[in-house]
Design a protein that fits this description.
The chain is an alpha+beta fold. About 35% of the residues lie in helices and about 15% in strands. Strands 1-4-3-2 form a 4-stranded mixed sheet, with no helix packed on it. The longest helix is centred in the middle third of the chain and has 18 residues. The protein binds zinc ion.
Length: about 210
Amino acid sequence: MPLLPLARTPRESHLYIALHPCACGEASTGENMRSFLWDFPDGWARKNEFTCPGCGTVRTFVFELPDWPHVEPDAFGADEPSQLIDAGEWLRLAHRWASSVPFEPSPDPKHEKVLKLAISGMDEVLKFFPPDAREDDELPDEAFWTERGRAYRAEQPFGGLRRYRLEAYRSGLVGLAHTPTQTPTPTPTPTRAYRKLKNLWKKGPGRA
Ligand SMILES: [Zn+2]
């Protein structure tokens, strides 16, 4: 069983598993997930094992664990970018989550929860920018290492992966969320963000 890259949080490892369905097509893990901690020479790993509810195959995922697990609620990891899920996948997920709630502030706690997921997803996208990235820099090539992530990048129109566009989209999500989010806001330009938000909404950040 090959060791998968570092899973910064259990939440991130569960998302990774959901993104990699069984050969039978079943993506859910059912109720029988077992998890073991493994000690190996270079550190720690966590083995997740479950029986596919679709076909009965035992499925196993072994993730490397961080030395210091990050436990902040609503976050998929600390400040370092994911090694497990690439920027294209995070962007696709954030768009999918965001477009599943209405384009208006909603008192429904379920909408709130999904919006927070989308915001956390955008936080993950933005972590792939190097600290000195300028606002019109695009996400770097090395942030896209999966086939699905690269395909999603290719679907984004010219300029859609620039930092300010992605930050504007995130800021729009924060504006819609009922309660302020705990995650740090990477200082977008609110006026521009709000002017473009309506266009950005269903279409993703690139098509304004
Ligand atoms: Zn299966």
